[in-house]
Amino acid sequence: MTLNSDDRIQLCTDGDFETILLIINDGARAYHGVIPQDLLAQPYMSREELRHEISDGVQFWGWQEQGTLAGVMGIQPVQDVTLIRHAYVRSNQQGKGIGGRLLSHLQALATSPILIGTWAAASWAIRFYEKHGFELVPPPEKDGLLRQYWRIPERQIQTSVVLAEAGRRRSPS
């Protein structure tokens, strides 16, 4: 499989909704037994939550593999930053560079500093972002960023981290 062609990366449409939902919930199986049970819903993301995320400005991009979406990643401008949201690759397609290609594509689209939030216990996700030039934001700065740019409960703030592009960190106002 070659990962040289950006034509495999496409803006997702309304017709991709069910596949996006499937990919997110498939990829989120990795969180079972890792993140606190009180924060792990079944399914991980409902149709209503995905609709809300899209209506709130999350724009999904997808990687096409043999005519079907193999991975998705969202980008969301919020105030003076760009958030990378809901980055998932089908579990049977992971480790092939799909996530890295999607992230690079979204980095090229961003016109403001990029922030990424993820679960503190998801060490594989943190390593992935660090490998791609992001660094952990230290507490309590990360708490302020989560409160300013995300709409998540306090319990999730306590169990999350924020990563920023190395050298381009944005402190909360």
Structure summary:
The chain has helices spanning 17-27, 47-55, 98-109, 123-131, 141-149, 154-158, and strands at 9-11, 59-65, 68-78, 81-89, 114-119, 134-136, 160-165.
Verbal overview:
The chain has one domain: Gcn5-related N-acetyltransferase (GNAT) (Aminopeptidase). Helices cover 32% and strands 26% of the residues. It is built from 6 helices and 7 strands. It has a 7-stranded mixed β-sheet, with helices on both faces. The radius of gyration is 15 Å and the shape is globular.
Task: Kindly report the CATH topology.
Answer: Aminopeptidase
Query: What's the overall geometry?
Result: globular
- Average pLDDT works out at 92
Q: Count the helices. How many?
A: 6
Topology pattern, helix = H, strand = E? EHHEEEHEHEHHE
Number of strands: 7
Gap from first CA to last CA? 44 Å
Structural class: alpha+beta
Question: What are the segments in which pLDDT stays under 50 over at least 5 consecutive residues?
Answer: none
List the quaternary state of the chains. single chain
